[in-house]
Specification:
The structure holds three protein chains of three kinds. By secondary structure, chain A is mainly α. Chain A contains 15 helices and no strands. Chain A has a domain of 217 residues. In chain A, helix 13 runs antiparallel to helix 14. Chain B has a two-stranded antiparallel sheet. Classes of the chains: A mainly alpha, B mainly alpha, C alpha/beta.
Chain lengths: 319, 294, 247
């Protein structure tokens, strides 16, 4: 219990990954740097979903609404106002959090499947408004060629900015999940009735978690604007939400880095497989079935299970 | 008078769409209510039903005969496909979490989507309306309605009644309802739940296929026609009450009519009305309008 | 300390609890007994706020708590354990108890102190008092049944309650574990001055630790009195002790 910090091996992995990510743009072609940026964005999005999905047990079926909201807020601030970039960027997370709060007030009364479905209907409302409000949001075309300040307009600049923001967000989310707030959240996931019985206001706690998840989802949306310079209504269409959900499940939704790994797997798969066949979805589907049947706790869950017995033996030897 | 005519015609258009929504949703409701599978692949089966209708109708020369053969054979084809999926994949996962079943159905929807692309290609396909249903009828106010739409309006209630008879009057339907409430109990008294589940799954998917066949003559059959439909179906089922056939009917009516009337009232934002209706219903009755099975 | 007057609850026309009255004084251990389906668990669910009563009053420390949400009732000093083990399955024994204390200390809005550094001492104290110190790092889904039942009580203790409701604390336990549980419950009452209301099928345990007993049948109170009064009562023997023995 007292030794919950990262082990030496994990520190090693973290340092290697970080070094790889920092050095990457120096030797990789632009296309791959763009793909890695996308992995970071979707990874952050999936991790933010997992705050409420894996750690809160909430069936957040339409998380991408907050992603889209963040993206559109930043895009609209950038194109319609003269405010500094920082303000426009921050607007993404803030507006997404506000939307999440408002939707949460309505959806929080329900649980599980019903919660998810009510959320899908509310989210689709937001989607429909953005999809049709041509004069303001650009309708089904979206907004393209968004001007960015020099610092983040170059491919390298946007990559490093994305990396920095993603790492910062992951750090904050990690801290939150390991705090008493996060512990209580996991308690609610395991047993909402009992949580109420030990004195936790379950609904208020979940609502707070929803706002946090919405905020980081929004930040991911703003990052997408930095990476791609566009926004479009499909960012908040329900199929993307399902895909992000799948990223969490594939990577391992009870592990902190599971969703990030899931995003990497899905995007890498799509990039590589679509290189030599148009039927990449077929391959993707088959891989998913494989994961469901053979890796029930996701890819990361599987590997940690593989490593655990070794650890257990070490402790037994000491004893 | 003109306004009233317009409303009436929109209602009739809405009703024939409602029929399709109802048929697909009732299948979904059965599967969700009894097996508790949020079946995302349901929409793909609807799409495959439509494509199969094209092939069968084409094979029989494309005329009236083609349509009737399609109506007969395509749902059966979809049912066989679903039976294979159920026996090979789903039956091993009933004890797992809902999210895993959701994941599996999503995987299948991707696979089915690509298989459809592989077999039928990416072009638009059309299925001709059979000879008997060519032409229009003038209804109240002298407004012409396509005969095929009237045919659809007749099919809806027939399916509803047949399904009601299956669930309430047959032995298998009764077992299925009991299993929806308490699975262990039903298997404890020596009934092979696995077979019942397979049957329910296949019947539910058959309805998706039937919906696909029926919609085929009214739209262009194309990849991606499952995308919006699948979510609409989910919302209808939740709104009506899981596993409740009449709930699916009411849900489909609310959804279909708010859609067609909404577009008439406010063309630009008409598409938000059905979602708004779902939100309002769920806020008033969180577990759906009629009694759900779980 | 706890006074229940005319409490009723029905489900779809079936009276699960009808017009029940009960009186528990500070420092007492009161047992509720009765055949299966007599309404004991429903009664406990009503008191602890899992269910809302149709009518009646639940006076706890001079205040009517009937119909309050469970987290509000818990904050007033009333905790409960469950018949079927109802803990946080994916978390460790330590974390289970810790969450309960966090909730009491209103620490659930603390976002940035690592959980692994807070409330360690108090959590360890509770674990020690129930004898789970050595298993603190086990994930509770993997514990033995007896340990899980004890953890059940430990989680309830985390709320630092004055009044503890135990729903069949020894259900499914092996005989030697039952003995340990009796000692534990008695100890809680003696050492921490807790008032305890519990229900139990094991008559030996009931007569060993209860100061008073209430007998329920078909949702209603049959009798409330001392152990001897209950033992000597003919009606009780008819419905419960003599007739169909429930194990």
């Amino acid at each position: 219990m007292m030794h919950r910090g990262l082990s030496k091996r994990n520190w090693g992995i973290a340092a290697a990954v970080l070094a790889f990510l920092l050095l990457l743009p120096l030797f990789l072609p632009r296309f791959y740097v763009y793909q890695i940026s996308l992995i970071l964005v979707y990874g952050l999005l999936a991790t933010s979903l997992n705050i409420v999905l894996g750690y809160g047990g909430v069936f957040q079926f339409h998380h991408c609404v907050f992603y889209g909201m963040g993206g559109y807020a930043t895009a609209l601030f950038l194109t319609k106002t003269g405010l500094p970039f920082v303000v426009s960027f921050a607007a993404g997370g803030v507006f997404a959090a506000i939307l999440s709060f408002l939707m949460g007030l309505i959806t929080i009364r329900l649980s599980k499947l019903y919660f998810g479905m009510l959320q899908i209907s509310l989210g689709s409302l937001v989607w429909a408004i953005i999809y049709r409000w041509y004069s303001f949001t650009g309708g089904d075309d979206g907004i393209h060629g968004i001007e960015l300040p020099d610092l983040v307009s170059s491919p390298r600049g946007s990559y490093y900015f994305t990396l920095a923001v993603t790492l910062l967000c992951l750090f904050v989310i990690y801290k939150i999940l390991k705090s008493p707030f996060g512990s209580v959240l996991q308690g609610i996931r395991d047993n909402p009735v009992r949580s109420g019985m030990v004195g936790i206001n379950v609904k208020r706690h979940i609502l707070a978690a929803l706002i946090i998840a919405g905020f980081f989802g929004g930040v991911a949306g703003s990052l997408f604007v930095v990476v791609d310079r566009t926004v479009f209504p499909d960012m908040l269409f329900w199929t993307l939400s399902l895909e992000v959900l799948v990223m969490c499940l594939i990577g391992g939704w009870f592990k902190f880095f599971g969703p990030m790994l899931g995003a990497a797997i899905v995007i890498a798969l799509r990039t590589f497989v679509s290189g030599f066949t148009v039927y990449w979805a077929l391959v993707y589907g088959i891989v998913m079935i494989f994961v469901i049947f053979f890796l029930p706790d996701g890819v990361l869950g599987f590997f940690e299970e593989k490593i655990k017995p070794a650890k257990g033996r070490a402790i037994a030897d000491k004893g | 008078m003109l306004f009233l005519q317009k409303v009436l015609s929109q209602v009739l258009v809405g009703l024939s769409r409602t029929t399709i929504l109802f048929i697909v949703s009732s299948g979904m409701s059965l599967i969700l209510g009894v097996l508790r599978i949020p079946n995302v692949a349901h929409g793909s089966l609807y799409m495959i039903g439509a494509f199969m209708a094209f092939s069968v109708s084409h094979f029989f020369g494309g005329g009236s005969q083609g349509f009737w053969m399609a109506l007969l054979l395509a749902p059966v084809g979809v049912a066989i496909l679903s039976l294979v999926a159920e026996r090979a994949l789903f039956q091993h996962l009933y004890k797992r979490e809902h999210l895993m079943l959701l994941l599996l159905t999503f995987a299948l929807s991707l696979i089915f989507g690509d298989l459809t692309k592989l077999v039928w290609g990416g072009e638009y396909k059309s299925v001709p309306v059979p000879q008997v249903f060519h032409g229009f009828v003038n209804v109240i106010g002298g407004f012409p309605i396509p005969l095929y739409n009237l045919f659809l309006l007749a099919v809806g209630p027939v399916v509803a009644v047949l399904l009601w008879l299956f669930v309430n009057k047959t032995k298998m339907g009764k077992i299925a309802r009991a299993a929806a409430v308490d699975r262990e109990m039903v298997s404890a008294v020596g009934i092979n739940v696995s077979v019942v589940f397979a049957a329910v799954f296949v019947i539910g998917c058959l309805l998706a296929g039937l919906g696909g066949v029926l919609v085929a003559p009214t739209v262009s059959v194309t990849l991606g026609m499952d995308h919006t439909l699948i979510m609409e179906t989910f919302l209808i089922v939740i709104m009506g009450g899981l596993g409740n056939i009449w709930g699916a009917l009411i849900g489909a009516l609310i959804f279909g009519l708010s859609q067609s009337l909404g577009i008439m009232i406010w063309p630009q934002f008409g598409i938000i009305f059905p979602y708004l209706a779902v939100v309002i219903v769920l806020m008033i009755k969180p577990t759906g309008l009629l009694k759900s099975t779980w | 300390m706890l006074k229940i007057e005319g409490l009723s609850k029905s489900f779809d026309g079936f009276m699960a609890v009808s017009n029940v009255s009960l009186d528990v004084k500070k420092g007492e251990i009161v047992a509720v007994i009765g055949p299966n389906g007599a309404g004991k668990s429903t009664l406990f669910n009503l008191i602890s706020g899992v269910l809302k009563p149709d009518s009646g009053r639940i006076i706890f420390k001079g205040e009517n708590i009937a119909g309050l949400p469970s987290h509000a009732i818990c904050k007033k000093g009333l905790s409960r354990s469950f018949q079927i083990v109802n803990v946080f399955e994916r978390m460790t024994v330590f974390e289970n108890v810790q969450i309960s204390i966090m909730a009491r200390e209103k620490m659930n809005w603390n976002f940035f102190t690592p959980s692994s550094r807070v409330l360690i001492e108090e959590t360890m104290q509770i674990l020690a008092s129930v004898g789970l110190t050595e298993k603190k790092d086990s994930v509770c889904g993997l514990l033995s049944h007896g340990d899980r039942k004890v953890l059940e009580i430990a989680v309830a203790l985390g709320g630092n309650p004055e009044f503890l409701i135990l729903d069949e604390p020894t259900a499914g336990m092996a005989p030697e574990e039952t003995g340990r549980c009796i000692d534990l419950i008695k100890g809680l009452c003696d050492r921490f001055g807790l008032t305890i209301l519990f229900c139990e099928h094991d008559m030996e345990l009931v007569f060993a630790i209860a100061s008073r007993i209430m007998v329920m049948t078909r949702g209603a109170t049959l009798i409330q009195g001392s152990c001897d009064e209950v033992r000597g009562n003919q009606a009780v023997q008819d419905v419960y002790l003599g007739g169909s023995e429930v194990c």
